[in-house]
């Protein structure tokens, strides 16, 4: 399982890179609307690690 620990304290998970990127973008859209579009796929995957 890949995980991004969002600075807000939410852990966003995904079983694949695609799922993780999608889930992070959905989290940003719902909780950080100011930041929508500011994080590229590469940036999201750089923040991710395996759990
Ligand atoms: Zn967040
Ligand atoms: Zn972790």
Could you give a short description of this structure?
This protein is α+β, with helices and mostly antiparallel strands and 51 residues long. Helix content is 43%, strand content 20%. The protein is built from two helices and three strands, in the order ββααβ.
Bound molecules: zinc ion
> How would you state the average pLDDT, rounded?
97
* End-to-end separation: 5 Å
Q: What oligomeric state do these chains adopt?
A: single chain
Describe the largest sheet.
3 strands, antiparallel
User: Order of helices and strands, N to C?
Assistant: EEHHE
The fraction of residues assigned to DSSP E strands is 15-25%
Class by alpha and beta content:
alpha+beta
Describe this structure in words.
This protein is an alpha+beta fold and 51 residues long. Helix content is 43%, strand content 20%. It contains 2 helices and 3 strands; from the N terminus they run E-E-H-H-E. It has helices spanning 17-31, 41-47; strands at 2-5, 11-14, 49-50. It has a 3-stranded antiparallel sheet with strand order 2-1-3, with helices on one face. A hairpin with a 5-residue loop joins strand 1 (2-5) and strand 2 (11-14). The mean pLDDT is 97. Bound molecules: zinc ion (2 copies). One zinc ion (ZN) binds next to helix 1.
